[in-house]
Design goal:
Length: 149
């Protein structure tokens, strides 16, 4: 499914959700100033998270190039760090509704049923558990106060 959407911004959003544990609202609310290319960090603002707390997540090296390309793609439109990283049109931020709709569309095209964008966060958490990462670290990375396994 992710491969089916590889030509658009949704692909990057789904990669951020699956490989960094971002919620869809956190991904669509990212701004240019939230991304630190040198240290491979993403600052998730407290207004975007369910916990009401901000956090910083590390993104994997495999995303460096696509994140830079996305930055370059829209840099000519925006000159300030507070502008959204993902846009739906001129000056219009992408919505979580659009993310859900696109996820369903590409899931249907790939013949995948029973998943939502939130499933990508579960994938992230499960991959960390399989790697032996302690539950407190996983909880902090996800920005949740209670982690249920």
């Amino acid at each position: 499914m992710i491969e089916a959407s590889a030509d658009g911004e949704y692909w990057i959003i789904w990669q951020l959700m699956a490989l960094c544990g971002l919620r869809s609202v956190e991904a669509v609310n990212l701004t240019y100033g939230d991304i630190d290319l040198e240290r491979r960090l993403i600052h998730v603002g407290k207004t975007s998270s369910n916990s009401g707390k901000s956090r910083t997540v590390i993104y994997p090296e495999c995303l460096q190039e696509v994140i830079e390309e996305q930055l370059d793609r829209h840099r000519h439109l925006y000159r300030k760090n507070e502008h959204n990283y993902f846009i739906a049109g001129w000056w219009s931020p992408l919505s979580t509704r659009a993310v859900r709709y696109a996820f369903q569309k590409y899931s249907d095209m790939a013949g995948i049923e029973g998943y939502s964008p939130h499933s990508l966060r579960h994938f992230y958490a499960e991959s960390l558990v399989r790697k032996g990462v302690d539950l407190d670290t996983i909880r902090k990375n996800l920005g949740v106060s209670i982690l249920t396994i």
